[in-house]
């Protein structure tokens, strides 16, 4: 019996990045919110006013989380109530204005709630992918510091910063996954805007808030591809780990190799393990069930779509 308890304790310590977060047992039923965004103007399948690409939902579910969609047309009071019921937030990729959109308005509300919560030891993680990465830079710096890069559809290896492989994000990745990420063209890039190292280094807020874990270059400009906050469980990647296992358009930059899929899983596993350190919960089972993504049906958009399936919301 003693041995079993010891094994459980060691495993919990293995997952916990911060000692304070290990004071209580891990939440093995994490629910992560994914923020919806305004529909694309040229989407012939669009319904309602907003969407979430299903690949982000599958990405989190593949690592043991459930998902709640966060609508963009709710009140601040409703968002605060939802914040206190979920265990983490994912800001997905897409194509909206990261200064003036409803996506930005809601992201700012949750970002500020997360900062306040973490400041009082209420561990709440945030993950940003592509547009989500860019959104986090704006929320932290209060400026749009992005610059154009030639990275619209290309797969790249990551250039790790010194010590980055021992970061919270990467330190539990298997050695073969880290090697693949650094040597193979397996990180999918589908963005026209990036945070250059030059702009990051010249902005005190960003430089003191985020640690650069990896960089890339388009041949002319060096830009940040992975970062994590120093004092908060906030993480951001400019690349798309969810695409390799779950998006199937035949396009440059799309990679379905075993190493790419393995890297995608460990990325999802890491963020879900972070959400397990949060103990927010809904007031009842019926309330929880009302919010879950299972209440919605994804729309199949065709194999020639950049998003194979979307969830749409009013």
TrEMBL record:
It catalyses: (6S)-5,6,7,8-tetrahydrofolyl-(gamma-L-Glu)(n) + (n-1) H2O = (6S)-5,6,7,8-tetrahydrofolate + (n-1) L-glutamate. GO terms for biological process: tetrahydrofolylpolyglutamate metabolic process. Its EC number is 3.4.19.9. GO terms for cellular component: extracellular region; vacuole. Residues 1-23 form the signal peptide. Keywords: Hydrolase, Secreted, Signal. Its main location: secreted. InterPro entries: Class_I_gatase-like, Pept_C26_g-glut_hydrolase, Peptidase_C26. GO terms for molecular function: gamma-glutamyl-peptidase activity. It is found in: Secreted, Extracellular space. The active site is at residues 130, 240. Belongs to the peptidase C26 family. This is folate gamma-glutamyl hydrolase. It comes from Carassius auratus (Goldfish). The lineage of its organism: Eukaryota, Metazoa, Chordata, Craniata, Vertebrata.
């Amino acid at each position: 019996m003693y041995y079993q308890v010891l094994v459980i304790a060691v495993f919990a310590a293995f997952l916990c990045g911060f000692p304070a977060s290990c004071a209580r047992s891990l939440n093995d039923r994490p629910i992560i919110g994914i923020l919806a965004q305004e529909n694309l103007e040229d989407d012939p399948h669009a319904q309602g006013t907003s969407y979430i690409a299903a690949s982000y939902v599958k990405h989190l579910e593949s690592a043991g989380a459930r998902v709640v969609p966060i609508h963009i047309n709710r009140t601040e009071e409703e968002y605060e109530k939802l914040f206190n019921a979920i265990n983490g937030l994912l800001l997905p990729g897409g194509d909206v204005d990261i200064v003036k959109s409803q996506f930005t308005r809601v992201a700012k509300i949750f970002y500020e709630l997360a900062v306040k919560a973490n400041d009082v030891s209420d561990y709440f993680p945030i993950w940003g992918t592509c547009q989500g990465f860019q959104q986090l830079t704006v929320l932290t710096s209060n400026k749009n510091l992005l610059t154009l890069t030639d990275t619209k559809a290309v797969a790249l290896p990551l250039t790790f910063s010194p010590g980055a492989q021992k970061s919270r994000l990467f330190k539990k990745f298997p050695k073969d996954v880290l090697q693949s990420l650094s040597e193979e063209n397996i990180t999918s890039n589908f963005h026209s805007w990036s945070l250059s190292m030059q702009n990051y280094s010249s902005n005190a807020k960003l430089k003191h808030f985020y640690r650069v874990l990896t960089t890339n270059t388009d041949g002319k400009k060096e830009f940040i591809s992975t970062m994590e906050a120093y004092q908060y469980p906030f993480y951001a990647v400019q690349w798309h780990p969810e695409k390799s296992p779950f998006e199937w358009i035949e396009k440059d930059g799309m990679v379905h190799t075993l190493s790419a899929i393995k890297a995608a899983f460990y990325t999802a596993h890491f963020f879900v393990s972070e959400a397990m350190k949060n103990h927010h919960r809904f007031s009842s089972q019926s309330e929880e069930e009302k919010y879950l993504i299972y209440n919605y049906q994804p729309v199949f958009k065709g194999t020639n779509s950049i998003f194979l399936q979307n969830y749409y919301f009013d």
